[in-house]
Amino acid sequence: MNYKAYIQLIRPKHYLKNVLIFLPLVFGGFLFTEHYFLRAIYSFFAFSMVASVAYVINDIKDKDYDIHHSKKKNRPIAAGIISTRAAAATILALLVAAGVFQTLAGIKFSSVGLILAYLAINIAYSLGLKNLPIIDVGILSLGFVLRVLYGGYSVGINVSKWLYLAILAFSFYLALGKRRNEIRFNGTKTREVNKSYNQDFLDKNMYVCFGLTIVYYSLWAIDPAQKHKLMFLTIPVVIVIAMLYSLTVEGSKSDGDPISVLLSSKPLLALSVFYGFLVVLLVYIK
User: Fold this and answer.
1) Per-position b or e across 47-76, b if 16+ CB within 10 A of its CB
2) What pLDDT does residue 273 have?
3) Tens digits of residue pLDDT in 36-52
């Protein structure tokens, strides 16, 4: 068995996106509370397994398009390394693993409903919604939002409305940036919906969402209901992270995938880690 190909198939590096699950725990002040932390860890792995299911389904459906993509043609299914039947068996194994981790995290209607909703919209995306302009980036953005909401419900912590809006706006910014770079470097052959977009439209709407992200995050940080009164100190860091991300997307030849962009820029990665340390400092160091 080609284990390396199966690891590539489930895309574990994209589990970095699932770190969003920990945001409610961190901002809620319960990161170092063992009961909450363990539940969040189990939830992280449950969601990661389901996310891998979505990736495998998408690769099966996108096989014919991926063959024409400069990078995606090397994915195991597109390259013929893993058969469709073997990929289906992988999906089943991932779903079993997700069920085990979700059971360990706790069976709650809200959290289970959100993880099933994530899977359902991603299946719908793979089956055809990815070909509808705006709807496609909306689904990509909703995936990030569902991660945060799932993380909150899993540990019983409410997510602030301002934080929800900030994540939603930033998610749209990331999704539009992904489409922008796909068109810029691979044209429209690799994805049917890209024929409906042009770079000017994507640029304009990217930066509308960029501005909204800063506004909503700032409103969250200075909200009178904010328990951590010094959180406003993180606003400049978030602005610089967003600007550096834009610079990296504009200047790189990546396909705009958020994880690829993050990992390709050491300054961006370092600043993101610094933001994490700063948040922990402000929330947990009295």
Assistant:
1) bbbbbbbbbbbbbbbbbebbbebeebeebb
2) 95
3) 999 999 999 999 999 99
